[in-house]
């Protein structure tokens, strides 16, 4: 059983980007993070993204707004960042307050600065297999993990558990593409799927992205499967200092012995997500340079 080591891969990607930037001329790539409110998880995620940006040599800026900001005001702020040529990437940290429509907010980011890949424009371009599309960072991280571990996907059955706009749908689209590390037969399962275990047992590659701790059990997986666990769930653990521990959507200890390869949680896809955000910011910067020359 091989461990798909997101820590090692993400460090590789970040050092490649750092090397690339070391020879760059002119102002570095710049990403602006927008955070509304003080949600502890959002504060933590934005901080860690800023640290990774600094490590690579990408400039990051942070704009924070109180939860009381109106959607109208937020859209104005995004509009001024869209017009600012010194900003190459814009990331609106989810979740947003309940009085805002996330789709409207994500779609207001200029497509060429949408490094999160959540806009209608970039999702549509992913469907069209446009190489300049920005792909949501988590599914992009899964695809990069598969590619760097040289896992064969052509003609194989990829089963995706979950149909979210952020992971499930783009992941399915990525593995359907005409590409040597795609060309798969893809099945998407969700909360209304019947006979779920029958379908997951047919998977050559199983991607679990449903946000339920230890949901995938050993009887749902056939021997020799490759399992990519996207889940990040807190479960109570009195024996841990923090009183909880982080587990994936897959019951790792029970499932791992049956797998050819499996990604751990933590230390798997989560770290790839941030690395791909840096990759997307770099891509936005390169595309803007190309356009201006």
UniProtKB/TrEMBL annotation:
NADP(+) binds at residues 162-164, 232. It catalyses: (6R)-5,10-methylene-5,6,7,8-tetrahydrofolate + NADP(+) = (6R)-5,10-methenyltetrahydrofolate + NADPH; (6R)-5,10-methenyltetrahydrofolate + H2O = (6R)-10-formyltetrahydrofolate + H(+). GO terms for cellular component: cytosol. The keyword Transcription does not apply. Homodimer. GO terms for molecular function: methenyltetrahydrofolate cyclohydrolase activity; methylenetetrahydrofolate dehydrogenase (NADP+) activity. It comes from Oceanipulchritudo coccoides. InterPro entries: Aminoacid_DH-like_N_sf, NAD(P)-bd_dom_sf, THF_DH/CycHdrlase, THF_DH/CycHdrlase_cat_dom, THF_DH/CycHdrlase_NAD-bd_dom. Signal peptide: none annotated. One of its GO terms (biological process) is tetrahydrofolate interconversion. It holds the Pfam family THF_DHG_CYH. Catalyzes the oxidation of 5,10-methylenetetrahydrofolate to 5,10-methenyltetrahydrofolate and then the hydrolysis of 5,10-methenyltetrahydrofolate to 10-formyltetrahydrofolate. This is Bifunctional protein FolD. Keywords: Amino-acid biosynthesis, Histidine biosynthesis, Hydrolase, Methionine biosynthesis, Multifunctional enzyme, NADP, One-carbon metabolism, Oxidoreductase, Purine biosynthesis. Residues 136-287 form the Tetrahydrofolate dehydrogenase/cyclohydrolase NAD(P)-binding domain. Residues 4-116 form the Tetrahydrofolate dehydrogenase/cyclohydrolase catalytic domain. Its EC number is 1.5.1.5, 3.5.4.9. Belongs to the tetrahydrofolate dehydrogenase/cyclohydrolase family. Pathway: One-carbon metabolism; tetrahydrofolate interconversion. HAMAP family: THF_DHG_CYH.
